[in-house]
Amino acid sequence: MFLLRLLLGVVLAFLASCASGPKTSADCYRGPKASIHQGHVIPPRQAPDSVRRAIAAANAIQNTPYQYGGGHGRPSHGLDCSGCVSHVLGHAGLLQDPMPSKAFRHYGRSGQGQWITVFARSGHVFMTICGLRLDTSSRGGGTGPRWSAAPRSTKGFALRHPSGL
């Protein structure tokens, strides 16, 4: 009886830890990692074409200034967080029209993706591609779209991913 209770306790503890989800963006990817070279990302050899297009689109907007509302179909000189993620997913063929950050809470499929994960909450969205974070926040220096290998807390964010990726 003691062994059964102990086993049940271990199983419940394991399930509870899995249910709480990843604690940081770095916990959301176990595949082949991309590499950063002089501020641009080089995809792993086995990355699908849509992932390669997403990385190319993100590389093209590196160091674009942050501009609230930028990237949502009106003239702008920069991008905000959702404009950045919309731009990347759009150029990869994974999104039709730009979306605000809170709308990304319902984008694609729930949970972390195999190659791309979008982290969304009301007021901010960022993404990881092949294990590297693309974010407009000042975490890691500067504002506007930037690649970073540094993890970010996922607390309060919904994890979503493009179907099949």
In short:
With 165 residues, the protein is an alpha+beta fold. The chain has three helices and eight strands.
Q: What would you say this structure looks like, in words?
A:
This protein is of the alpha+beta class. It has one domain (24-161): Alpha-Beta Complex (endopeptidase fold (from Nostoc punctiforme)), CATH 3.90.1720. Helices cover 25% and strands 19% of the residues. It has helices spanning 2-19, 49-60, 81-91, and strands spanning 35-37, 40-42, 109-110, 116-121, 124-129, 132-135, 146-148, 158-161. The strands form 2 sheets. A 6-stranded antiparallel β-sheet has the order 3-8-4-5-6-7, covered by helices on one side. Helix 2 (49-60) crosses helix 3. The radius of gyration is 17 Å and the shape is globular. The model is unreliable at 2-19 (pLDDT under 50).
Biggest β-sheet: strands ordered side by side in the sheet: 3-8-4-5-6-7
Quote the CATH topology: endopeptidase fold (from Nostoc punctiforme)
Low-pLDDT segments: 2-19
Radius of gyration: 17 Å
